[in-house]
Design a protein that fits this description.
Elements lengths: L2 H5 L4 H9 L5 H5 L7 H13 L3 E8 L2 E7 L1 H4 L2 H14 L8 H5 L1
Antiparallel strand pairs: 1-2
Length: about 100
Protein backbone atom coordinates (compact mmCIF):
# COMPACT_ATOMS: atom_id res chain seq x y z
CA UNK A 1 0.00 0.00 0.00
CA UNK A 2 1.18 3.55 -0.68
CA UNK A 3 -0.10 7.05 0.09
CA UNK A 4 -2.07 7.31 -3.16
CA UNK A 5 -4.04 4.23 -2.14
CA UNK A 6 -5.27 6.28 0.83
CA UNK A 7 -5.74 9.80 -0.56
CA UNK A 8 -5.49 9.44 -4.33
CA UNK A 9 -9.15 9.10 -5.24
CA UNK A 10 -11.51 11.86 -6.35
CA UNK A 11 -13.18 12.68 -3.04
CA UNK A 12 -10.75 12.04 -0.19
CA UNK A 13 -8.78 15.25 -0.64
CA UNK A 14 -12.03 17.25 -0.73
CA UNK A 15 -13.08 15.67 2.57
CA UNK A 16 -9.68 16.40 4.13
CA UNK A 17 -9.75 19.97 2.85
CA UNK A 18 -13.21 20.51 4.35
CA UNK A 19 -12.16 19.05 7.70
CA UNK A 20 -9.15 21.37 7.73
CA UNK A 21 -11.55 24.25 7.00
CA UNK A 22 -13.62 23.46 10.10
CA UNK A 23 -16.43 21.29 8.80
CA UNK A 24 -17.11 18.53 11.29
CA UNK A 25 -20.45 16.81 10.75
CA UNK A 26 -21.68 14.55 7.98
CA UNK A 27 -24.18 17.23 6.91
CA UNK A 28 -21.43 19.86 6.80
CA UNK A 29 -19.38 17.62 4.53
CA UNK A 30 -22.23 16.53 2.27
CA UNK A 31 -23.11 20.20 1.67
CA UNK A 32 -19.70 21.03 0.19
CA UNK A 33 -19.86 22.84 -3.16
CA UNK A 34 -18.52 19.75 -4.96
CA UNK A 35 -21.65 17.79 -3.91
CA UNK A 36 -19.97 14.52 -2.97
CA UNK A 37 -22.46 11.65 -3.27
CA UNK A 38 -23.59 10.45 0.17
CA UNK A 39 -22.52 6.85 -0.41
CA UNK A 40 -19.03 8.00 -1.41
CA UNK A 41 -18.78 10.33 1.57
CA UNK A 42 -19.72 7.55 3.98
CA UNK A 43 -17.15 5.24 2.39
CA UNK A 44 -14.37 7.86 2.49
CA UNK A 45 -15.06 8.70 6.13
CA UNK A 46 -14.88 5.02 7.07
CA UNK A 47 -11.62 4.58 5.16
CA UNK A 48 -10.04 7.70 6.68
CA UNK A 49 -11.05 6.53 10.15
CA UNK A 50 -9.63 3.06 9.52
CA UNK A 51 -6.33 4.64 8.41
CA UNK A 52 -6.17 6.77 11.57
CA UNK A 53 -6.44 10.05 9.65
CA UNK A 54 -9.70 11.08 11.30
CA UNK A 55 -11.58 10.11 14.42
CA UNK A 56 -15.34 9.83 14.81
CA UNK A 57 -16.76 11.21 18.05
CA UNK A 58 -20.41 11.07 19.13
CA UNK A 59 -21.75 14.49 20.07
CA UNK A 60 -25.39 13.42 20.39
CA UNK A 61 -26.74 10.07 21.46
CA UNK A 62 -30.45 10.16 20.50
CA UNK A 63 -30.45 10.12 17.57
CA UNK A 64 -26.81 9.25 17.30
CA UNK A 65 -24.80 12.01 15.62
CA UNK A 66 -21.06 12.17 15.07
CA UNK A 67 -18.45 14.74 14.32
CA UNK A 68 -15.29 13.94 12.44
CA UNK A 69 -11.98 15.31 13.67
CA UNK A 70 -8.53 15.20 12.17
CA UNK A 71 -5.96 13.20 14.08
CA UNK A 72 -2.35 14.36 14.06
CA UNK A 73 -1.82 12.11 11.07
CA UNK A 74 -4.64 13.98 9.30
CA UNK A 75 -3.35 17.40 10.34
CA UNK A 76 0.03 16.53 8.85
CA UNK A 77 -1.59 16.41 5.38
CA UNK A 78 -2.25 20.19 5.42
CA UNK A 79 1.04 21.20 3.70
CA UNK A 80 0.20 18.80 0.85
CA UNK A 81 -3.27 20.33 0.50
CA UNK A 82 -1.76 23.81 0.49
CA UNK A 83 0.66 22.91 -2.29
CA UNK A 84 -2.11 21.29 -4.34
CA UNK A 85 -4.19 24.45 -3.92
CA UNK A 86 -1.27 26.61 -5.11
CA UNK A 87 -0.74 24.37 -8.11
CA UNK A 88 -4.45 24.28 -8.96
CA UNK A 89 -4.80 28.04 -8.66
CA UNK A 90 -1.89 28.46 -11.05
CA UNK A 91 -2.86 25.88 -13.66
CA UNK A 92 -6.51 24.84 -13.31
CA UNK A 93 -9.15 27.39 -14.18
CA UNK A 94 -12.00 27.55 -11.69
CA UNK A 95 -10.05 25.89 -8.87
CA UNK A 96 -11.10 26.44 -5.28
CA UNK A 97 -9.44 29.57 -3.95
CA UNK A 98 -8.50 28.87 -0.36
CA UNK A 99 -8.89 31.54 2.31
CA UNK A 100 -5.67 33.21 3.39
CA UNK A 101 -5.74 31.54 6.81
CA UNK A 102 -5.83 28.12 5.15
CA UNK A 103 -2.66 28.86 3.23
CA UNK A 104 -0.85 30.22 6.29
CA UNK A 105 -1.96 27.58 8.78
Amino acid sequence: MNSLDIVGDKWTLVVLRDLHCGKKTYNDLVNSPEKIPTNRLAERLKRLEAEGIISKVAYQHRPKRYEYLLTQKGKDILPILQELARWGNKYVEGSWIPPEWFMKA
